[in-house]
Amino acid sequence: MTLTDAPTYNPFDAAFQADPYPAYRQLRDHDPVHRHEQEGAPAFWALSRFDDIWNAVRDSANFSSEQGLTFYPDEIGQLGLAPTIVMLDPPRHTKLRSLIAKGFTPHRVMSMEPLIREFVRSRIDLIETKARAGEQVDLHQDFSTQIPTFVLAELFDIPESDRMQFDPWVTALTALQDSGFDIQALGAQHAVAEMFGYFGELITARRAAPGEDMISALTQAELEGERLTDWDILGFCFVLVAGGNDTTGNLISHGVMLLDGDHAQRERLVAEPDLIPNALVEFLRLESSVQGLARTTLRPVRIGDVEIPEGEKVMMLYGSANRDEREYGESADRLDITRQFPRHLAFSSGVHFCIGSHLARLQARLAFEELLARQPHIGVDLSGSQRLNSAFTRGWVHLPATGIR
Ligand code: HEM
């Protein structure tokens, strides 16, 4: 390959987003501490090797989250975001995280299993009915995204009639990223204001009449002797809606897509559902819902031969790290539902390790247990699909289903 043929990392380009993996490999092999300069976009750095990212995200003393998680400068100020744990450093991060972590203990998460399974079954009923009536089933919209939306609404105890609003909010937040945080863009400003307005009213109502849900628990919680403010609680709502919905839906959709690319492994999973938990992590490794998020250097940091100055945005390309041959060997790009590996970065690592990882895996496990038992030939029609346009997350807008009988 000549240098001009080399696939290039360009997070804004639809061709890169369709298949980012050759460009990631190019970065890992030839430019692992990449300085990205592109007309019309802010300059930033990008790490692509597993070890470099693993070490950086576990070093919050040098790599801060407080300037936001994208490569845009001042995204927090521009968006008027409430402070969320994912954009805080220790020690405040540690304290806030300990409050929210109580809502996500493995025990608490597992107690939701019967409820989620019942919901998953009802969605399969629905897609079967649609398919049998000759209608096109959109796996992503009709099934995958519905599950995390349901779960979040349960956590927040939101009435059924209000639940449909979640997805447009998430779409608006994603659109916001793609428009360079032009908050006038694509009705995003309106959607964000609507979301904050909705949760603001909910917080007021739960302060007056607390229930058993997570928002009520947060209104009662104390940090260093003080109650959390509405603004703090809005930050939690924001991170759960923005971080928990799309990511989990895309894990489910990508899993169906990956199995459709290897029917022998799909059959094996149908025959041996005990392999599902292992397969899910392999899906996440190969098609990481979060492809990359940024940190900001708090002082000059040397990685290999390169020194990154203080105050620079550095993208952690999780999607690249998870396919690094240095970590996973020569078969890193191949699906292997039995693959055993001690570490991956789909949920990051260190202080910001995903708090919802148990919940995400529970939802995806139930989705695959039920779906493969009832529709063992389910696949996807990539020619009719539409990918999400995002420099940070990898996923779908539409993904038509095939093989439903
Ligand atoms: C497959 C699904 C999911 C993926 C791939 C995922 C991925 C991630 C990643 C990569 C981070 C670290 C962000 C960073 O590097 O700065 C993170 C943090 C977080 N995630 Fe998830 N997530 C998923 C599902 C969920 C769910 C279901 C919830 C909760 C309902 C959730 C809540 C959070 C929270 C609260 C944080 C911030 C933790 C902190 O800053 O201490 N996530 N997630």
Automatic annotation (TrEMBL):
GO MF assignments: cholest-4-en-3-one 26-monooxygenase activity; heme binding; iron ion binding; steroid hydroxylase activity
GO terms of biological process kind: cholesterol catabolic process
Keyword S-adenosyl-L-methionine: no
Cofactors that this protein relies on: heme
Keywords: Heme, Iron, Metal-binding, Monooxygenase, Oxidoreductase
Superkingdom in the source lineage: Bacteria
Gene3D superfamilies the record matches: Cytochrome P450
UniProt KW Metal-binding keyword: yes
PROSITE patterns according to UniProt: CYTOCHROME_P450
Pfam families in the record: p450
PANTHER family attached to this UniProt entry: BIOTIN BIOSYNTHESIS CYTOCHROME P450, P450, PUTATIVE (EUROFUNG)-RELATED
Protein family (similarity comment): Belongs to the cytochrome P450 family.
The protein's name in its UniProt record: Cytochrome P450
Gene source species: Speluncibacter jeojiensis
